[in-house]
Amino acid sequence: MKYDLKALLKSSEASLTQIVDILNTAPSLMLQSLEASNTAIIIVDMVNGFVKEGPMSSPRIQTIIPAIRELMTQAKEKKLPMLAFADSHNESSIEFATYPPHCLVGTSESKIVDELKEVGGYELVLKGSTNGFLEPAFHNWLKEHPTIEQFIVVGDCTDICVEQFVLTLKTYFTTLNRPSRIIVPINSVETYDLGVHAGDFMNVMALYKMHMNGIEIVREITN
């Protein structure tokens, strides 16, 4: 089967218009409206190798540092648990068959950016694939925080690591028949531009896929 580009663009226009409207009208959310005893902040891959240096870094992702820093500062004051995933690969990682070598163990690329490291207050979990949910250390963290059922997820990349993590997390709680609230603020997630991978379009489609799978998309988290 071959796609007719003109027909596809025409048939998709109305849907894309509605999707953009859904995202543009997303509400903001006050952090203080969330119960501290069951809420956590998850920071995905805000490492130098995606933000500041190396073949996978993007200036687009630098733009979300201030919003994430502010959220972490407020969460730390409210004593909310925070967990930060950091992409970290050995030289033989099979992920390098898909992506160029990046975030090697022990290099500066695998380190959390200084702006967020300065805030601190998070538990660090190294991850060797695009989906941090699969890391045993994350499951240990879940067991150590049995009351947590609300998650604010920020970081990069919206359409890869963030999307995979939130959808798997949501499915996990559904499998257990447990309620969960997973929140993604638009101003605190980002992806990259590279060739056919147009960042704005990829962001929109990833956020909509999360929305249609029960993830709560908000404009921003305010104090």
UniProtKB/TrEMBL annotation:
Residues of the Isochorismatase-like domain: 39-168
InterPro entries cross-referenced by the UniProt entry: Isochorismatase-like_dom (IPR000868), Isochorismatase-like_sf (IPR036380), NIC1 (IPR044717)
Record keywords, A-Z: Hydrolase
A Pfam family that the UniProt record links to this protein: Isochorismatase
Coiled coil segments of this chain: none
Transmembrane residue ranges: none
GO molecular function list: hydrolase activity
Protein's UniProt name: Cysteine hydrolase
